[in-house]
Every structure is written in structure tokens, then in C-alpha cells.
From TrEMBL:
<feature type="signal peptide">
    <location>
        <begin position="1"/>
        <end position="25"/>
    </location>
</feature>
<dbReference type="InterPro" id="IPR012910">
    <property type="entry name" value="Plug_dom"/>
</dbReference>
<dbReference type="InterPro" id="IPR036942">
    <property type="entry name" value="Beta-barrel_TonB_sf"/>
</dbReference>
<keyword id="KW-0812">Transmembrane</keyword>
<dbReference type="InterPro" id="IPR039426">
    <property type="entry name" value="TonB-dep_rcpt-like"/>
</dbReference>
<dbReference type="InterPro" id="IPR010105">
    <property type="entry name" value="TonB_sidphr_rcpt"/>
</dbReference>
<keyword id="KW-0813">Transport</keyword>
<protein>
    <submittedName>
        <fullName>TonB-dependent siderophore receptor</fullName>
    </submittedName>
</protein>
<dbReference type="Pfam" id="PF00593">
    <property type="entry name" value="TonB_dep_Rec_b-barrel"/>
</dbReference>
<dbReference type="InterPro" id="IPR037066">
    <property type="entry name" value="Plug_dom_sf"/>
</dbReference>
<keyword id="KW-0998">Cell outer membrane</keyword>
<feature type="domain" description="TonB-dependent receptor-like beta-barrel">
    <location>
        <begin position="233"/>
        <end position="673"/>
    </location>
</feature>
<keyword id="KW-0732">Signal</keyword>
<dbReference type="GO" id="GO:0015344">
    <property type="term" value="F:siderophore uptake transmembrane transporter activity"/>
</dbReference>
<dbReference type="GO" id="GO:0009279">
    <property type="term" value="C:cell outer membrane"/>
</dbReference>
<keyword id="KW-0675">Receptor</keyword>
<keyword id="KW-0798">TonB box</keyword>
Length: 704
């Protein structure tokens, strides 16, 4: 069946379901039963186990043939996390990459970059030049391992993550917080929610921060305004609007170079930019509007619209190369403007039906999206104006060289139309089957100028991304699963003949086991999983053997490994999260001989995270908690040709709180207790991104 015919059939199905009406005699659901945002398991590290982005239905995660790790707000708070990056080390198979001078998030899942194409409340967020995600607006993070293209389209085969934001509540709450730490950290937060009326609720999150930095020569600042409204005009209908307006000022800090193969040649607080250069302006605006309506006891519909706009503008210094004297680093003055926008619309129907002895949970829908990205980067000439600096004895304040021309000018426009369908079958009480398919029409237009080279591409194609899996329920608390899925992601640019590259295509297999330990109320108190996976990605760009100035889509990489996670309340007083992963990546086909067989950069072969917290009540009724943990990141390849390695490290963390009264809470957190020097990521040999070092933070929160 060709793609156009499949699109038509799925469209007829979606239209029929969306047009369906409530069944005769269906009883309305009481408004008090409508849950908005917060999980019933808000105090457990296990997190929400239903209504997740893994299936987009209320199917329990134990029945979904996929490894999914939920990071709830309770864990985020106990860790004292202020950024999404602070929790990555506690998810198996998830690692940090180079954050491009501290300007955006860069995370990998199972060896493949997951940040571009990540999700916000189930909407694909293509913009990759936006601000790093703050933890102040996060309700939970849903990490979906393996391909999710059957539901969400363009993405990497290693997986993606979904940010679920805090929603308005019909119960009044107001909380103000203040955190103060060394290395310049100052952070104020405000979170308030409550009802305007019996059907309309509001929420407002505010963040103002002066961030911690690795050197006193630079500083960062951040401001966030996140208002939201929830309207429930009937017991069956919920309309939600939310926004996130983020403004960040930060230097373009490319970190440190590798010197003679050594990553430890320079102290981590050595700054090789120019402190007098104004900080970059990083902007991120997100607006979402969703409608959820329950038609009857079996069927519901959902529609939504998201618009996200980001920008990264300003001056900075780009490192060039280390000279033969081993101490002079050439630099380029650069100016960049990188605006992007992503608009998408979704509509879908979910329902339950029965055919013979088979029970179905059906999801079908469509999505339309438009993504634009513009990059204009101009700089000075490294040959005529090297703008050098002594890496061992830097002197700042040199006359800045003039910009001589454009380094990169590019315009990208991606338009997508997609239909998707998914069926979850209860074959028996023990056997569950899931199958899904997304059909996507993709139009990609890209123009790029790099120096004297101009490339243009205009490409239309259709992609089918299926997934299938089977789950065997040994009991309601334990299950094994086997899954298979495909993914795709567009390549940009064109080959020597001016033809657009075929998209990246991935195929993944996964075999796993899940277990849940139940609390007295029947909710999961502890969740655990272990899985093994094998992923192959084709059409990776590699150098054209007949013309070194061009690439061709002919490379292949693979990733395989084992992951394990455990999280929850293991006793009435102990909360724990633990994870471990073994990820083996390898370039299996490439036209460049010195890349063949190499591991993928910035991906640790071994990684692990552990955090445990003891909590109890004092005789006066106040509550306290004290905990600690560690994150271990194994040795990583520093660049594509594996000429040096980023050393392994283990970072130790302490955290505690005292809930003095129902209103007052005091917190203490120590990150990198032993003040280890380590690097979170790298680009080539010119950019090692060091951690800030030991960070001690004290905080106070007052609820009123």
C-alpha cells in the first residue's frame, strides 16, 4: 500500500472517530473527578504510571512494550535541581553533550541526540537554539526510550523526552522561594495557583536567577514568566492555555581546549573569551492551547495548538586553533542571530472497543506543523586577525578585530502533514499487543552559504514509521516485553549533484522486564525495569570519496546495550532512585577510514546514578529529610576520530530539608561534594565544557 493511500485511509478513520458523538444515556463524569496536572503519586519517586506520552492513553506503563522512565517533581525537588540537566544523570542511558557555550540543552539517549525533537506536553519541540530548560515549571519528565516516531514523527532512534509542565489547580496554593549559593548563585521563585471560579483556575510561575559560573569573570541571568489557565465548563470538557516566556543573558563560553592530548592542562576556571563582550541574548516563548473532551465512557477527543519561538543573538569569541608554541590560542570575533519558530496543530480521538474476544484501546489523529530556522553568523578572519590569547597567562582587553564577512548564512523551512494510528489489544489477561503507524508528508527547503560554498535543496518525501510490541503479564505487577520500531530524521544539505540527502533512518529492537511494588492505596510505590536494546541508524552523512568538498548519505552507526532503573518508596522512610546503563556505540560504515569502528563522541560506555533520602517526623510534628547520592559517567570519546578521551568521573551529592511548619521549609544541597574537575561534553579538540565545581546552596520556601 503506498503512502498516499495509507494517508487517505487513516484520514477517513480519524474523521469518523472525531465525528462520533456521546452514547445514548451516558452519565456525565463529576467535575470533582477531573484531575488537572498533579499525579496521585506526587510524593513518590515512582511518578505517574498512567496518562503518559509513551502511549498517549491512560494505559498503565507496565502494559506498554517500551522502557519509560518517569522523573517526578518530588525527585526534582529533593535533588534541589534548578535545571533539567541536573536530573539527567539519574536516568539510565541518558547523557549530556556539549551545550554550545551554555546556550541550549544537549542530551543523548542510547547514544543518539535527543534534545532536538523533544516534547513539551506531547507537542514536538523542533527548535534547538532555545534556552536551557529550567526546573521551576516542570511537573515531571517522561523519558521515552527507543523510537517514538510512530506517534511523534521526526526524531532519533535512541528516544526522546517529554516535559510535562505544572498546571492550574482548583485548590489555592501560593509559595515563594529563595536560594543562595556560592559561585554567584542567587535564585528567587514564585508559584501560585487557585480558582477564579468553580470552572476556571489559574497558575503563575516566576523565576529570577543569577546563575552559578565557573569563573568570577563572567555571569549569567535568567527570568521566566509562565502563566496558565484551565477552564472546565462541564464535567466532560477541559480547556488549557499556558505560556512560558524565558529570557537569558549568558556569555558564549566555549570552555577549554585540549593541549597535547591532555584534558587537564588548564584549570577549570580559566576563561579564554573576552569578559568585556556583552552577553548573548537567548529568548524562548512557548504558547500552548489544548481542548480535551470526553464523549462518553469509551471515547474522548483532544485538539491542541503550540507555537514556540526562540532566538540566540549577540557577540562572542570562537576558539580557532592552538599554535605550535603550545600556548597561543587563536580566536575569532563572531556575531550570531539564530531565530527559529515551530507551529504545530494536533487533533486525535481515543476510544475503547471490542471485536469478538479482543479488547482494543484505539488512538488515531493527525498533525500539521511548520518549522523555520534562520542562522546568520559573521566573524573576523583567523588568518589576518588571529586575535590570539595565551592560555597559560591570558591578557584581556585586546582590540577586537572587525567582522570580514558571513561564516554561515542559512534558511531552513520544514512543513509536515501526518496521520497516525495506534491499537493496543488485550488478547488475554496476560497477552497485550501494541501496534502503531505514522504516515508523514515532509517538505524540506534549505539554503546555506558557508564561505564561498552555496548549497540549496528542495525535497518532498513520504515516510512510514511503524512500531510494534508485545507484553506478557506474569501478574498485574510484573511483565516482560519485546518491541520493534523505526524512526526517521531529515538530513540537511545536498550532494555533489545538488540532490537532497535521504533522511536518517533508524531501526531498534528492545527486550525488557518491568516490575511494580504496590502501596496500600493500590498505587505503584516502587517501579523497576531492565532492558536490552539494539539500534541501527542508516544514511549518516559521510564524505564523498570522489569529491572531498561534498558529503553523501551512506554511513551507518549502531548502538546496543543494557539499562536498569529502580525508583520509589522502598520503606516508609526511605525514598530511592537508582539507574545503570551500558551503551556500546560504533561507526559501522563510513567512507572515511579513521572514523570506521570508532565510538560516538560524548557517549559514556558505562553510566550510573543513585540517590536515597531518609525522611521522618519529629515529636513536634515537623518533618525532615536527609539524603545523598552519586552520578558516575564513564570514559567518553572526545571527538569523532577518537584522538583523546574525556576521563571518567564520579560526582557526589548531598541534600536535605526541614519542613519546620506546614508553611516553612528550609533546604540544603551540596553538588560535587569533593570538588572534582570534570567535563560534561566536548566539541572536537577546541571545546571542553567544564563543570562549575563544588556548589553549596541553602534555600527557604514559604507557602501562604
Amino acid at each position: 500500500m503506498n503512502a498516499h493511500r495509507t494517508l487517505s485511509l487513516l484520514g477517513i478513520t480519524a474523521g469518523s472517530l472525531l465525528a462520533a458523538g456521546p452514547a445514548q444515556g451516558a452519565e456525565p463524569t463529576p467535575l470533582s473527578e477531573i484531575r488537572v496536572g498533579a499525579s496521585r503519586d506526587a510524593r513518590s519517586y515512582a511518578g505517574e504510571q498512567r496518562n503518559t506520552a509513551a502511549s498517549r492513553t491512560d494505559t498503565p506503563l507496565i502494559e506498554v512494550p517500551q522502557n519509560v522512565r518517569i522523573v517526578p517533581q518530588k525527585l526534582v525537588g529533593d535533588l534541589g535541581a534548578t535545571r533539567l540537566a541536573d536530573v539527567v544523570g539519574f536516568v539510565s542511558g541518558m547523557s549530556q553533550g556539549n551545550d554550545y557555550g551554555g546556550t541550549w540543552d544537549s542530551f543523548a539517549l542510547r547514544g543518539f541526540e535527543a534534545s532536538p525533537g523533544s516534547l513539551i506536553n506531547g507537542f514536538s519541540s523542533t527548535c534547538q537554539c532555545g534556552p536551557r530548560r529550567d526546573a521551576g515549571t516542570i511537573e515531571r519528565v517522561e523519558v521515552l526510550k527507543g523510537p517514538s516516531a510512530a506517534l511523534y514523527g521526526s526524531s532519533e532512534p535512541g528516544g526522546t523526552y517529554n516535559i510535562v509542565t505544572k498546571k492550574p489547580q482548583f485548590r489555592p496554593m501560593r509559595e515563594a522561594g529563595l536560594k543562595v549559593g556560592n559561585r554567584g548563585l542567587r535564585r528567587a521563585t514564585f508559584d501560585a495557583t487557585g480558582p477564579f471560579s468553580s470552572t476556571l483556575a489559574w497558575r503563575l510561575n516566576l523565576v529570577a536567577e543569577k546563575g552559578a559560573t565557573r569563573t568570577s569573570l563572567i555571569e549569567t541571568s535568567k527570568y521566566i514568566v509562565a502563566p496558565s489557565l484551565t477552564w472546565a465548563p462541564t464535567a466532560r470538557t477541559i480547556v488549557n492555555y499556558e505560556a512560558d516566556i524565558t529570557r537569558i543573558r549568558t556569555p558564549y563560553d566555549r570552555g577549554l581546549p585540549v593541549i597535547n592530548g591532555r584534558t587537564d592542562a588548564l584549570p577549570r576556571d580559566r576563561y579564554l573569551g573576552e569578559p568585556s563582550i556583552p552577553n548573548l541574548h537567548i529568548r524562548g516563548d512557548v504558547h500552548q492551547l489544548t481542548l480535551n473532551h470526553t464523549l462518553n465512557d469509551q471515547w474522548s477527543v483532544r485538539a491542541g495548538l503550540m507555537h514556540r519561538k526562540t532566538d540566540n543573538t549577540g557577540h562572542g569569541t570562537e576558539p580557532g586553533a592552538l599554535q605550535r608554541d603550545g600556548r597561543t590560542l587563536t580566536r575569532r570575533m563572531a556575531w550570531r542571530s539564530m531565530p527559529s519558530s515551530n507551529t504545530s496543530m494536533q487533533a486525535e480521538a481515543t476510544g475503547r472497543l471490542q471485536t469478538g474476544t479482543l479488547r482494543h484501546t484505539v488512538l488515531t489523529g493527525f498533525e500539521v506543523s511548520r518549522y523555520t530556522h534562520h542562522a546568520d553568523i559573521r566573524g573576523s578572519d583567523l588568518r589576518t586577525a588571529p586575535f590570539g590569547i595565551d592560555v597559560y597567562a591570558p591578557v584581556y582587553g585586546q582590540a577586537q578585530p572587525p567582522y570580514t564577512g558571513a561564516l554561515v548564512v542559512s534558511n531552513n523551512h520544514d512543513n509536515t502533514r501526518a496521520l497516525y494510528a495506534q491499537d493496543q489489544l488485550d488478547v488475554t489477561e496476560q497477552l497485550k499487543v501494541m501496534a502503531g503507524l505514522r504516515v508523514e508528508r515532509f517538505h524540506q527547503r534549505a539554503d546555506s552559504v558557508r564561505g564561498n560554498r552555496t548549497t540549496r535543496s528542495n525535497h518532498h518525501y513520504s515516510e512510514l514509521t511503524p512500531r510494534a510490541g508485545v507484553t506478557w503479564m506474569f501478574s498485574p505487577e510484573s511483565a516482560a516485553f519485546l518491541s520493534w520500531g523505526r524512526s526517521f530524521k531529515p538530513n540537511t544539505g545536498s550532494d555533489v549533484n545538488g540532490n537532497a540527502f535521504e533522511p536518517l533512518k533508524g531501526t531498534a529492537w528492545e527486550l525488557g522486564y518491568k516490575w511494580e511494588g504496590r502501596q496500600d492505596a493500590g498505587q505503584p510505590g516502587v517501579v523497576a525495569s531492565i532492558s536490552a536494546f539494539h539500534i541501527t541508524k542508516n544514511n549518516v552523512l559521510t564524505q564523498d570519496p570522489n569529491n572531498a568538498d561534498f558529503n553523501m548519505a551512506a554511513g551507518q552507526v549502531r548502538s546496543c546495550g543494557v539499562e536498569a532503573d529502580l525508583a520509589g518508596d522502598i520503606t516508609p522512610h526511605w525514598r530511592l532512585t537508582a539507574s545503570a546503563g551500558l551503551t556500546d556505540t560504533k561507526v559501522t560504515r563510513d567512507n572515511t577510514a579513521n572514523l570506521l569502528g570508532k565510538r560516538l563522541p560524548n557517549v559514556p560506555r558505562v553510566s550510573a546514578g543513585l540517590f536515597a533520602l531518609w525522611h521522618d517526623r519529629l515529636d513536634n510534628g515537623s518533618e525532615y529529610g536527609a539524603g545523598g547520592g552519586l552520578v558516575h559517567v564513564g570514559e567518553r570519546t572526545g571527538n569523532a576520530t577518537d584522538t583523546y578521551r574525556l576521563p571518567a568521573y564520579t560526582s557526589v551529592k548531598l541534600s536535605g530539608y526541614w519542613q519546620a511548619t506546614s508553611q516553612l521549609r528550609l533546604t540544603l544541597a551540596v553538588d560535587n561534594l569533593f570538588d572534582r574537575t570534570f567535563y560534561t561534553g566536548s566539541i572536537g579538540t577546541i571545546s571542553l565544557q567544564p563543570d562549575v565545581g563544588r556548589l553549596v546552596t541553602v534555600g527557604v520556601q514559604y507557602r501562604f
